[in-house]
Amino acid sequence: MKFFQRLKYSLYNAYAAWKGDGFDFSSWMGKTFWGIDNSTLATNETIFSAVTRLSNSMATLPLKLYQNYEMKQNSASDVLINDPNPNMTGFEFIRNLETQRDEKGNGYALIERDIRLQPSRLTLIHPDYVEPVIERNSKELWYQVLGEDGNRYYVHNMEMLHIKHIVSSNSLKGISPINVLQNANDFDKAVREFSLKEMQSAPNSFILKYGGNLDTEKRQRVIDDFKRFYKDNGGILFQEQGVEITPIERKYLAADTLVTERITRSRVANVYNMPVTMLNDTEGQSYSSNEQLMRMYVDLTLMPIVRQYEQEFNRKLLTPAERKAGFYFKFNTKALLRADTSTQADYYTKAIRSGWLKPDEVRQLEDQPPEGGNAAKLWVSGDLYPIDMDPSKRKSTNNSTNNED
User: Fold this and answer.
1) ∠ CA(344), CA(304), CA(316), 5° rounding?
2) This protein's superkingdom (predicted)?
């Protein structure tokens, strides 16, 4: 009871502060706050591709509130899934939160509550303006937020969604993947600039040979004639007696740039913990089916991220009483693992015949309305029997007995 009273007091103080005039964080969204976007994310197409893949995947996954495997709805699920704030849909909220995490290493969203302490609004906060701190006496985590007015505000950890990458020792903030990729970005940028200079440089160079018995004045005349001929004739040169012109061949090898790009894609894929195929690098990659590739992506890349989101939502958007009653948020990762039509049909057939999936549940998975009646029942194949069933009651035994009679 004492813990609940303390938590309620903390939430009430935070709620009262946010509802003050000019302190509802609504003025934080805008051009002045975000500034001009010249970040690495906006200037590096490989990192942009990786972040887009992750953020779109998380935003696309169906998110539902369940109670003991049955879908439910309450104020928290409505805010999170449908209307997080007046400026965003649920899709955009999840995608922007994941983009912050993948760009800055941390994604923050302020939880605003109504008079019943139920979530009423989720507002994204720029990671550069948030700093986690530990309160000296209680040892609880708070977030120090720098407001647009220059003041500092403190938000209890139960009122701030914090999605992050892994953290270093004795730290509370996630490590930015873009900072980890700094050396790779510098190398990639240097190669690109060098390649661009090579392509933009003069296409031809020459070795000009003339007799060694020419004095200074005649040598200068030969050089001047060479320049004039090259300029006046569009690069066409006339080789005269006593003068030999040998072109210097300059080759730009596009393969060198391709190798560098493959190295960059591999490093970006490693940092973001995803198959390099997801960044359109298929050389040397072999998958028996698209389902196998997606399963690797889901298992190795998305599942840790999904688990972090689910636990953060469950802990901070649901009350202890709701969690004890069996409520929980869950992303449906199977939405990314759908096979081709033939394989999917075989999967459903085996599930129905084995008695662990109802026909109506299959219809719902295929976005069809349930029929009810027998379609809402579990069925079992006629050639299967419980192992402890009396053999005399099996259909084959009865048939043989009838035939003998």
Assistant:
1) 110
2) Bacteria
